Amino acid sequence: MKKRLASNIWKLFLFHLTQRRNYIAILSIFFLSLPDTNAKQIGFYMAAGHIASFILEVPSGYLSDKIGHKQTLIISKICLILSTFAFIFAKSLFLFIIGSILMSSANAFASGTNSAFLHNTLIGLKKEKKYSKIASKQSGGASLISGILMLLLPMLAGISITLPLKINLIFDVFGLFIAISFISPNQKYKAEKEEPISLLENLKRWKGTGFYVTSIFTGILFGSMFAISGYREPFLQSLGFPIVFIGSVMALSRFFWFIGSNFIHKIEEKKKIKKMFKIEIFLFPIIFIIVSILKNPYVSGFIFALFFGYFWSRSEIINKYYLDKFCLNKNYKATMLSIKNQIYTIFQFTFTFGIGFLMIISYQKGFLISGIVLFVLLFISYLFIRKKIE
C-alpha cells in the first residue's frame, strides 16, 4: 500500500506540469485575431475569470475537504479541459469569457487542495517533515519545463496560433488520467473537542491565532508582486529591451525558481521563517526602488527574473508554515489554505488597481513609489505578527 501511496509524489509533479497554462502569453493575441474584437474586450474575459476565482476560492477549499482532495483535483482538471476547448473553438468574446471562468474555477479547485493532498500523502508515508523539500522541488521542476515550453511559443504560434492551445489540451487529458490514478491517503483525523461543520465556523476558528495578520503580511507581498508583473514587460520595452526577447525574462525566472526550489526548503527546516520575513521587509522594497533607478534594460530584466524566481520558489515553505502553525483542525487543510489565498486575492486586486494609477505617470515613478509604500505596509504589518511567529 505504501508503494502505491508513494506514487502520488511523482504523479503530483506531472499533474502540476499539466496545470500550467503555457499558452497564456499568446491568448490575447489569438483573441484579437478574431472578427469584431478589440483590446478593451480583453479586460472583460479577464475580469470574468478574476470574479470566478474570487467567488470560488474559499468554497472550493471547503468542498475539497468535504468530498475528498483527489475528487477535487479531478474536477479541477475537467474544468481546465473544458476551458482549453472553449478557447480553441472560440469565435467571439462569449467563449473567451466561458474559458476564462472555467480556467479560474480550475485554479480555485486546485488551490490549497494540491498542498493538502501532498501533505496527507507524506503523513501516510511518515515523511511529512520532507514536505517543503518535495513540494518546492515539484513546483520548481514544473516551472522549469514550463519556461522551456514558453520559449517554444513563438515557433509554435508561427505554425498556427491555436497550436499551443491544442498541445496544452493533450497535456490536460493526460493530466486527467493522472488525477484519476491518484491514491487517496484516506487521512481522517479525530476532531479535537468540537468539529467545525460549516465554513463560517472555520472562518471564526482562526480568530486570535495570528492566522489573519500573518496572511495580511504575506498577502501584501503576494499582491505587490502580482500587481507589478503586469508592468514588467512594458517597462522593459520602454527601456529598449528587444520585444523578441521579452519571453526570455519569464523563462529565466522559471530557471531561478527551479534553482531556488532545491535550496529554499532549508529555511523552513532550520526554522528561519521569522528571519526570512524580517529580511523581506527590506529586500522587496529595495528591489522595486533599484529597478526604478536602473536604465539598462538587460540588468533590469535579470533582476526581475532573479527576484520573481526567488519569490515563487518560497511559496511552498509558506504553505508548510501555515500547515504546521495554523492547521487547528487537520481535516480542513484545504479550507485553511484557500482562506489564505483569498486574502492574497484581495491584495492582488487592490494593488493592481492602485499601481495602475502610478504607472500612468511613469514606470520609473510607479516602481519607486510602490517600493516606498510596500516598505511602509510590510513594516507596519510585521509589528503585529512578530510575536506570533515562531
Could you explain how this protein is built, in words?
The chain has 390 residues and is mainly alpha-helical. It folds into 2 domains: 1-182, Growth Hormone, Chain: A (Up-down Bundle), CATH 1.20.1250.20; 205-390, Growth Hormone, Chain: A, CATH 1.20.1250.20. It is built from 18 helices and no strands. It has helices at 2-19, 24-32, 39-67, 69-88, 93-110, 113-124, 131-151, 153-159, 163-180, 199-205, 211-238, 246-261, 265-269, 273-293, 297-313, 315-325, 333-361, 363-385. α1 packs antiparallel against α6 (113-124) and α3 (39-67) runs antiparallel to α17 (333-361). The longest helix is centred in the first third of the chain and has 29 residues, at 39-67. The chain is globular. The two termini are 36 Å apart. Residues 190-194 have low confidence and may be disordered.
What's the mean pLDDT score? 84
Q: Judging from the principal axes of the Cα atoms, what is the shape?
A: globular
User: Remind me, CATH topology of the largest domain?
Assistant: Growth Hormone, Chain: A
Write the CATH architecture name of the largest domain: Up-down Bundle
Cα radius of gyration in angstroms: 21 Å
**CATH homologous superfamily heading of the largest domain:** MFS general substrate transporter like domains
Number of helices: 18
- From the N-terminal CA to the C-terminal CA, the straight-line distance is 36 Å
Q: What's the domain count?
A: 2
Largest sheet: none
Strand content: under 5%
CATH class of the largest domain: Mainly Alpha
Q: Helicity range of the residues?
A: over 70%
Order of helices and strands: HHHHHHHHHHHHHHHHHH
Number of strands: 0
Overall structural class, as computed from helix and strand content, comes to mainly alpha
Low-confidence stretches: 190-194
